[in-house]
Write a structure and sequence with these properties.
globular, single chain, seven-stranded mixed β-sheet, alpha/beta, 16% strand
Protein backbone atom coordinates (compact mmCIF):
# COMPACT_ATOMS: atom_id res chain seq x y z
CA UNK A 1 0.00 0.00 0.00
CA UNK A 2 1.33 3.43 -0.98
CA UNK A 3 2.50 5.50 1.98
CA UNK A 4 0.27 8.48 2.75
CA UNK A 5 1.88 11.79 1.83
CA UNK A 6 0.77 14.41 4.34
CA UNK A 7 -1.03 17.39 2.84
CA UNK A 8 -0.97 20.97 4.05
CA UNK A 9 -4.76 21.07 4.07
CA UNK A 10 -4.76 18.30 6.71
CA UNK A 11 -3.91 20.78 9.46
CA UNK A 12 -6.51 23.23 8.17
CA UNK A 13 -9.13 20.45 8.19
CA UNK A 14 -8.39 19.60 11.83
CA UNK A 15 -8.99 23.22 12.88
CA UNK A 16 -12.14 23.52 10.78
CA UNK A 17 -13.61 20.36 12.33
CA UNK A 18 -13.07 21.92 15.75
CA UNK A 19 -14.98 25.02 14.64
CA UNK A 20 -17.82 23.66 12.47
CA UNK A 21 -20.27 20.78 12.44
CA UNK A 22 -19.20 19.85 8.93
CA UNK A 23 -16.42 20.59 6.46
CA UNK A 24 -16.74 20.36 2.69
CA UNK A 25 -13.48 19.60 0.87
CA UNK A 26 -13.91 20.54 -2.78
CA UNK A 27 -11.39 20.26 -5.58
CA UNK A 28 -10.48 18.55 -8.85
CA UNK A 29 -10.78 14.81 -9.27
CA UNK A 30 -7.86 12.67 -8.10
CA UNK A 31 -6.23 15.48 -6.08
CA UNK A 32 -6.45 13.45 -2.85
CA UNK A 33 -9.63 14.72 -1.17
CA UNK A 34 -10.93 11.30 -0.15
CA UNK A 35 -7.52 10.07 0.99
CA UNK A 36 -6.95 13.11 3.20
CA UNK A 37 -10.48 13.02 4.62
CA UNK A 38 -10.11 9.31 5.38
CA UNK A 39 -7.18 10.04 7.69
CA UNK A 40 -9.58 11.75 10.11
CA UNK A 41 -12.90 10.03 9.38
CA UNK A 42 -14.23 7.36 11.74
CA UNK A 43 -16.88 6.12 9.30
CA UNK A 44 -17.46 6.55 5.58
CA UNK A 45 -20.12 6.58 2.86
CA UNK A 46 -18.89 6.42 -0.74
CA UNK A 47 -21.68 7.75 -2.93
CA UNK A 48 -19.88 6.82 -6.18
CA UNK A 49 -19.60 3.12 -5.24
CA UNK A 50 -21.38 1.43 -8.16
CA UNK A 51 -22.61 -1.43 -5.96
CA UNK A 52 -24.71 0.93 -3.85
CA UNK A 53 -24.89 4.15 -5.87
CA UNK A 54 -28.53 3.89 -7.00
CA UNK A 55 -29.83 2.70 -3.64
CA UNK A 56 -27.92 5.50 -1.91
CA UNK A 57 -29.43 8.08 -4.26
CA UNK A 58 -32.94 6.78 -3.57
CA UNK A 59 -32.31 6.71 0.16
CA UNK A 60 -31.05 10.30 0.03
CA UNK A 61 -34.39 11.31 -1.50
CA UNK A 62 -36.62 9.36 0.90
CA UNK A 63 -34.83 9.03 4.25
CA UNK A 64 -31.38 10.65 4.12
CA UNK A 65 -30.86 10.41 7.89
CA UNK A 66 -30.10 6.69 7.47
CA UNK A 67 -27.09 7.53 5.29
CA UNK A 68 -25.75 9.87 7.96
CA UNK A 69 -25.53 7.18 10.63
CA UNK A 70 -22.01 6.30 11.69
CA UNK A 71 -19.16 7.35 13.95
CA UNK A 72 -18.06 10.98 13.70
CA UNK A 73 -16.48 12.50 11.80
CA UNK A 74 -18.42 10.69 9.06
CA UNK A 75 -17.05 11.01 5.55
CA UNK A 76 -19.64 11.50 2.79
CA UNK A 77 -17.57 11.09 -0.37
CA UNK A 78 -18.79 12.76 -3.60
CA UNK A 79 -21.89 14.01 -1.81
CA UNK A 80 -23.00 16.05 -4.86
CA UNK A 81 -24.27 12.81 -6.45
CA UNK A 82 -27.27 13.27 -4.12
CA UNK A 83 -27.60 17.03 -3.39
CA UNK A 84 -30.48 16.29 -0.98
CA UNK A 85 -27.86 15.19 1.53
CA UNK A 86 -26.72 18.77 2.09
CA UNK A 87 -29.90 19.92 3.81
CA UNK A 88 -30.11 16.66 5.78
CA UNK A 89 -26.55 17.18 7.02
CA UNK A 90 -27.26 20.80 7.94
CA UNK A 91 -30.37 19.71 9.88
CA UNK A 92 -28.43 16.97 11.68
CA UNK A 93 -25.73 19.46 12.69
CA UNK A 94 -28.39 21.82 14.04
CA UNK A 95 -30.12 19.01 15.88
CA UNK A 96 -26.97 17.63 17.52
CA UNK A 97 -25.43 21.05 18.10
CA UNK A 98 -21.80 19.99 18.10
CA UNK A 99 -18.69 20.23 15.93
CA UNK A 100 -16.74 17.73 13.88
CA UNK A 101 -19.65 15.59 12.71
CA UNK A 102 -19.16 15.37 8.93
CA UNK A 103 -16.52 15.63 6.24
CA UNK A 104 -17.91 16.00 2.72
CA UNK A 105 -15.90 15.75 -0.48
CA UNK A 106 -16.96 16.93 -3.93
CA UNK A 107 -15.44 17.26 -7.40
CA UNK A 108 -18.03 19.62 -8.89
CA UNK A 109 -19.84 22.74 -7.75
CA UNK A 110 -23.49 21.91 -7.12
CA UNK A 111 -26.37 23.96 -8.51
CA UNK A 112 -27.43 26.09 -5.51
CA UNK A 113 -31.08 25.80 -6.57
CA UNK A 114 -30.96 22.16 -5.44
CA UNK A 115 -30.08 23.24 -1.89
CA UNK A 116 -32.51 24.99 0.46
CA UNK A 117 -29.94 26.30 2.94
CA UNK A 118 -26.38 27.50 2.37
CA UNK A 119 -24.99 25.82 5.46
CA UNK A 120 -23.42 29.08 6.62
CA UNK A 121 -22.12 28.79 10.15
CA UNK A 122 -22.55 25.00 10.11
CA UNK A 123 -20.51 23.74 7.16
CA UNK A 124 -17.10 25.18 6.32
CA UNK A 125 -15.72 25.00 2.78
CA UNK A 126 -12.13 24.20 1.84
CA UNK A 127 -10.61 24.02 -1.62
CA UNK A 128 -8.04 21.28 -2.11
CA UNK A 129 -5.63 21.64 -4.99
CA UNK A 130 -3.01 19.31 -6.41
CA UNK A 131 0.24 18.89 -4.46
CA UNK A 132 2.62 21.79 -3.94
CA UNK A 133 6.35 21.23 -4.33
CA UNK A 134 6.75 21.07 -0.55
CA UNK A 135 4.07 18.38 -0.27
CA UNK A 136 5.56 16.32 -3.10
CA UNK A 137 9.03 16.55 -1.56
CA UNK A 138 10.49 18.59 -4.42
CA UNK A 139 10.97 21.68 -2.22
CA UNK A 140 13.32 21.33 0.75
CA UNK A 141 11.25 23.83 2.73
CA UNK A 142 14.19 25.81 4.11
CA UNK A 143 12.31 29.11 3.76
CA UNK A 144 8.96 29.58 5.51
CA UNK A 145 6.31 31.91 4.10
CA UNK A 146 4.98 32.41 7.62
CA UNK A 147 8.43 33.50 8.82
CA UNK A 148 8.61 36.02 5.98
CA UNK A 149 5.39 37.58 7.24
CA UNK A 150 6.98 37.72 10.70
CA UNK A 151 9.85 39.76 9.28
CA UNK A 152 12.56 37.17 8.74
CA UNK A 153 15.14 38.40 6.21
CA UNK A 154 18.03 35.97 6.72
CA UNK A 155 17.06 33.57 3.97
CA UNK A 156 20.36 32.11 2.81
CA UNK A 157 19.41 28.75 1.31
CA UNK A 158 19.92 26.53 -1.71
CA UNK A 159 17.80 24.10 -3.70
CA UNK A 160 18.99 21.04 -5.58
CA UNK A 161 16.42 21.61 -8.33
CA UNK A 162 17.73 22.80 -11.68
CA UNK A 163 15.90 24.09 -14.74
CA UNK A 164 15.55 20.60 -16.22
CA UNK A 165 13.99 19.35 -12.98
CA UNK A 166 11.50 22.22 -13.05
CA UNK A 167 10.44 21.40 -16.61
CA UNK A 168 9.78 17.80 -15.58
CA UNK A 169 7.86 18.88 -12.46
CA UNK A 170 5.59 21.16 -14.50
CA UNK A 171 4.60 18.53 -17.06
CA UNK A 172 4.29 15.85 -14.34
CA UNK A 173 1.76 17.85 -12.34
CA UNK A 174 0.89 17.62 -8.67
CA UNK A 175 -1.65 14.79 -8.65
CA UNK A 176 -0.64 12.34 -5.90
CA UNK A 177 -0.64 9.38 -8.30
CA UNK A 178 1.72 11.23 -10.66
CA UNK A 179 4.26 12.25 -8.02
CA UNK A 180 7.17 9.83 -8.01
CA UNK A 181 6.27 8.41 -11.41
CA UNK A 182 8.53 8.50 -14.45
CA UNK A 183 7.79 11.55 -16.57
CA UNK A 184 6.37 9.56 -19.49
CA UNK A 185 3.99 7.68 -17.16
CA UNK A 186 2.86 10.90 -15.46
CA UNK A 187 2.19 12.44 -18.87
CA UNK A 188 -0.01 9.47 -19.78
CA UNK A 189 -1.97 9.99 -16.57
CA UNK A 190 -2.48 13.71 -17.25
CA UNK A 191 -3.56 12.89 -20.80
CA UNK A 192 -6.16 10.51 -19.40
CA UNK A 193 -7.36 13.20 -16.99
CA UNK A 194 -7.75 15.76 -19.79
CA UNK A 195 -9.58 13.26 -21.99
CA UNK A 196 -11.91 12.42 -19.11
CA UNK A 197 -12.72 16.11 -18.73
CA UNK A 198 -13.53 16.49 -22.43
CA UNK A 199 -15.39 13.23 -22.97
CA UNK A 200 -17.42 12.81 -19.80
CA UNK A 201 -16.77 15.07 -16.80
CA UNK A 202 -17.90 18.29 -18.47
CA UNK A 203 -21.29 16.67 -19.18
CA UNK A 204 -21.89 15.91 -15.48
CA UNK A 205 -21.77 19.52 -14.30
CA UNK A 206 -25.26 20.65 -15.28
CA UNK A 207 -26.55 17.99 -17.66
CA UNK A 208 -25.65 19.99 -20.78
CA UNK A 209 -24.36 17.71 -23.54
CA UNK A 210 -21.20 19.64 -24.42
CA UNK A 211 -19.08 18.69 -27.39
CA UNK A 212 -15.77 16.93 -26.53
CA UNK A 213 -13.92 18.54 -29.44
CA UNK A 214 -15.05 22.03 -28.46
CA UNK A 215 -13.96 21.27 -24.90
CA UNK A 216 -10.50 20.24 -26.10
CA UNK A 217 -10.18 23.33 -28.27
CA UNK A 218 -11.20 25.62 -25.42
CA UNK A 219 -8.73 23.90 -23.09
CA UNK A 220 -6.03 24.44 -25.73
CA UNK A 221 -6.80 28.11 -26.26
CA UNK A 222 -6.98 28.69 -22.51
CA UNK A 223 -3.56 27.02 -22.26
CA UNK A 224 -2.12 29.42 -24.82
CA UNK A 225 -3.22 32.33 -22.63
CA UNK A 226 -2.21 30.93 -19.24
CA UNK A 227 -0.74 33.47 -16.80
CA UNK A 228 -2.19 36.37 -18.83
CA UNK A 229 -5.27 38.56 -18.42
CA UNK A 230 -6.71 37.50 -21.77
CA UNK A 231 -10.43 38.14 -22.13
CA UNK A 232 -12.96 35.62 -23.40
CA UNK A 233 -13.21 37.77 -26.53
CA UNK A 234 -9.46 37.38 -27.12
CA UNK A 235 -9.76 33.61 -26.71
CA UNK A 236 -12.76 33.58 -29.04
CA UNK A 237 -10.78 35.36 -31.76
CA UNK A 238 -7.97 32.87 -31.25
CA UNK A 239 -10.42 29.99 -31.72
CA UNK A 240 -11.95 31.55 -34.82
CA UNK A 241 -8.49 31.98 -36.36
CA UNK A 242 -8.23 28.19 -36.14
CA UNK A 243 -11.58 27.77 -37.96
CA UNK A 244 -13.52 26.84 -34.82
CA UNK A 245 -17.20 27.79 -35.14
CA UNK A 246 -18.09 29.14 -31.71
CA UNK A 247 -19.59 32.28 -30.15
CA UNK A 248 -18.96 34.21 -26.95
CA UNK A 249 -21.87 32.58 -25.11
CA UNK A 250 -20.53 29.12 -25.88
CA UNK A 251 -16.99 29.82 -24.70
CA UNK A 252 -18.39 31.44 -21.56
CA UNK A 253 -20.57 28.39 -20.88
CA UNK A 254 -17.70 25.95 -21.36
CA UNK A 255 -15.26 27.88 -19.17
CA UNK A 256 -17.94 28.21 -16.49
CA UNK A 257 -18.37 24.43 -16.56
CA UNK A 258 -14.60 23.92 -16.29
CA UNK A 259 -14.54 26.23 -13.27
CA UNK A 260 -17.29 24.16 -11.65
CA UNK A 261 -15.12 21.07 -12.19
CA UNK A 262 -12.21 22.84 -10.46
CA UNK A 263 -10.17 22.57 -13.66
CA UNK A 264 -9.83 26.34 -14.08
CA UNK A 265 -9.00 28.62 -11.15
CA UNK A 266 -8.40 32.20 -12.24
CA UNK A 267 -6.47 34.61 -10.03
CA UNK A 268 -8.53 37.66 -9.00
CA UNK A 269 -7.24 41.22 -9.03
CA UNK A 270 -6.21 43.09 -5.86
CA UNK A 271 -7.61 46.58 -5.44
CA UNK A 272 -5.75 48.35 -2.62
CA UNK A 273 -5.92 52.01 -1.75
CA UNK A 274 -3.32 53.87 -3.82
CA UNK A 275 -1.47 57.13 -3.18
CA UNK A 276 -2.42 58.29 -6.68
CA UNK A 277 -5.72 58.07 -8.55
CA UNK A 278 -4.41 55.40 -10.89
CA UNK A 279 -7.18 53.07 -12.06
CA UNK A 280 -6.68 49.42 -11.15
CA UNK A 281 -7.47 46.74 -13.72
CA UNK A 282 -9.88 44.08 -12.51
CA UNK A 283 -9.38 41.33 -15.12
CA UNK A 284 -8.31 38.00 -13.58
CA UNK A 285 -5.12 36.17 -14.52
CA UNK A 286 -5.88 32.89 -16.27
CA UNK A 287 -4.79 29.70 -14.52
CA UNK A 288 -5.64 26.02 -14.38
CA UNK A 289 -5.76 24.25 -11.02
CA UNK A 290 -2.44 22.71 -12.13
CA UNK A 291 -0.15 23.90 -14.96
CA UNK A 292 0.35 20.31 -16.14
CA UNK A 293 -3.07 20.62 -17.81
CA UNK A 294 -1.77 23.47 -19.95
CA UNK A 295 1.45 21.59 -20.73
CA UNK A 296 -0.55 18.58 -21.87
CA UNK A 297 -3.01 20.57 -24.00
CA UNK A 298 -0.05 22.35 -25.63
CA UNK A 299 1.61 18.96 -26.18
CA UNK A 300 4.66 20.28 -24.33
CA UNK A 301 7.26 17.88 -23.00
CA UNK A 302 10.16 18.92 -20.70
CA UNK A 303 12.56 19.34 -23.62
CA UNK A 304 9.99 21.54 -25.42
CA UNK A 305 9.85 23.90 -22.44
CA UNK A 306 13.64 24.10 -22.28
CA UNK A 307 13.64 25.32 -25.90
CA UNK A 308 10.65 27.67 -25.46
CA UNK A 309 11.46 29.83 -22.45
CA UNK A 310 8.45 32.10 -22.99
CA UNK A 311 5.98 29.21 -22.57
CA UNK A 312 8.16 27.75 -19.82
CA UNK A 313 8.01 31.06 -17.94
CA UNK A 314 4.22 31.29 -18.16
CA UNK A 315 3.76 27.71 -16.94
CA UNK A 316 6.31 28.27 -14.16
CA UNK A 317 4.38 31.33 -13.02
CA UNK A 318 1.20 29.25 -12.89
CA UNK A 319 2.97 26.59 -10.81
CA UNK A 320 4.19 29.22 -8.34
CA UNK A 321 0.68 30.68 -8.04
CA UNK A 322 -0.67 27.19 -7.28
CA UNK A 323 1.91 26.69 -4.53
CA UNK A 324 1.35 30.14 -3.03
CA UNK A 325 -2.38 29.46 -2.86
CA UNK A 326 -1.76 26.17 -1.04
CA UNK A 327 0.71 27.71 1.41
CA UNK A 328 -1.46 30.78 2.03
CA UNK A 329 -4.45 28.62 2.93
CA UNK A 330 -2.62 27.48 6.08
CA UNK A 331 -1.85 31.13 6.93
CA UNK A 332 -5.46 32.29 6.50
CA UNK A 333 -4.42 34.23 3.42
CA UNK A 334 -5.55 34.71 -0.16
CA UNK A 335 -3.58 35.30 -3.33
CA UNK A 336 -4.29 38.03 -5.89
CA UNK A 337 -2.53 39.80 -8.75
CA UNK A 338 -2.17 43.52 -9.42
CA UNK A 339 -2.22 45.57 -12.60
CA UNK A 340 -3.10 49.20 -13.17
CA UNK A 341 -3.71 51.40 -16.19
CA UNK A 342 0.00 52.34 -16.33
CA UNK A 343 0.68 48.60 -16.81
CA UNK A 344 2.48 48.36 -13.49
CA UNK A 345 1.95 44.69 -12.71
CA UNK A 346 2.74 42.35 -9.83
CA UNK A 347 2.29 38.61 -10.33
CA UNK A 348 1.12 37.74 -6.81
CA UNK A 349 -0.11 39.58 -3.75
CA UNK A 350 -0.61 37.48 -0.62
CA UNK A 351 -3.05 39.16 1.76
CA UNK A 352 -3.59 37.64 5.20
CA UNK A 353 -6.78 38.10 7.19
CA UNK A 354 -4.80 40.01 9.85
CA UNK A 355 -4.02 42.73 7.30
CA UNK A 356 -0.44 41.76 6.53
CA UNK A 357 0.54 41.46 2.89
CA UNK A 358 3.47 40.67 0.66
CA UNK A 359 4.17 41.26 -3.02
CA UNK A 360 5.81 38.70 -5.29
CA UNK A 361 7.15 38.65 -8.82
CA UNK A 362 7.75 35.32 -10.54
CA UNK A 363 10.77 34.91 -12.80
CA UNK A 364 12.06 31.71 -14.31
CA UNK A 365 15.73 32.74 -14.50
CA UNK A 366 18.20 35.27 -13.12
CA UNK A 367 18.27 37.65 -16.08
CA UNK A 368 15.05 39.46 -15.11
CA UNK A 369 15.63 39.69 -11.36
CA UNK A 370 16.90 43.30 -11.40
CA UNK A 371 13.90 44.51 -13.42
CA UNK A 372 11.50 42.60 -11.17
CA UNK A 373 13.06 44.13 -8.04
CA UNK A 374 12.65 47.66 -9.42
CA UNK A 375 9.04 46.86 -10.25
CA UNK A 376 8.31 45.62 -6.73
CA UNK A 377 9.87 48.67 -5.09
CA UNK A 378 7.88 50.98 -7.37
CA UNK A 379 4.71 49.11 -6.47
CA UNK A 380 5.46 49.17 -2.73
CA UNK A 381 5.82 52.95 -2.87
CA UNK A 382 2.50 53.27 -4.68
CA UNK A 383 0.25 51.42 -2.22
CA UNK A 384 -1.28 53.58 0.51
CA UNK A 385 -2.21 51.14 3.26
CA UNK A 386 -1.93 51.44 7.04
CA UNK A 387 0.86 48.89 6.97
CA UNK A 388 3.46 48.45 4.27
CA UNK A 389 4.39 45.10 2.75
CA UNK A 390 5.81 42.47 5.09
CA UNK A 391 8.16 41.57 2.26
CA UNK A 392 8.89 42.06 -1.41
CA UNK A 393 10.12 38.89 -3.07
CA UNK A 394 11.03 37.36 -6.40
CA UNK A 395 10.33 33.63 -6.69
CA UNK A 396 12.55 31.89 -9.19
CA UNK A 397 13.64 28.57 -10.63
CA UNK A 398 17.25 29.42 -9.77
CA UNK A 399 19.46 27.77 -7.13
CA UNK A 400 20.13 30.30 -4.37
CA UNK A 401 18.04 32.34 -1.93
CA UNK A 402 19.35 35.69 -0.73
CA UNK A 403 18.44 39.24 0.26
CA UNK A 404 19.40 41.94 -2.23
CA UNK A 405 20.92 45.27 -1.19
CA UNK A 406 17.60 46.97 -2.01
CA UNK A 407 15.82 44.68 0.48
CA UNK A 408 14.04 42.51 -2.10
CA UNK A 409 14.23 38.79 -1.37
CA UNK A 410 15.12 36.24 -4.04
CA UNK A 411 13.63 32.82 -3.27
CA UNK A 412 13.83 29.63 -5.33
CA UNK A 413 10.47 27.84 -5.37
CA UNK A 414 12.44 24.73 -4.44
CA UNK A 415 13.15 26.25 -1.00
CA UNK A 416 9.66 27.44 -0.07
CA UNK A 417 7.12 26.06 2.42
CA UNK A 418 4.13 27.54 4.31
Amino acid sequence: MKKYMKRIIDDVLIEELEAFGGVLIAGPKWCGKTTSASQLANSSLFMHDEDSRESNIQMAKTKPSILLRGASPRLIDEWQIAPELWDAIRFDIDNRSTEGLFILTGSTIVDESKIMHSGAGRISRLLMRTMSLYESGDSNGTISLLELFKGKEDISAQTDLDIEDMAKIIVRGGWPNSVGKKTNIAIRQISGYCESIANSEIKTVDGVNRDPNKTRNILKVFSRHISTQATYRTMLNDLKSNNETININTITSYIDALEKLYVIEDLPAWSPKLRSKTAVRTSPTRHFIDPAIAARMLDAYPEDLIHDLNTFGLLFESLVIRDLRIYSQLLNGKVYHYRDKTNLEVDAIIHLDNGKWGAIEVKLGASEIDKAARNLIKFGDKVDLRNGPSFLAIITATKYAYKRKDGVLVIPIGCLRP
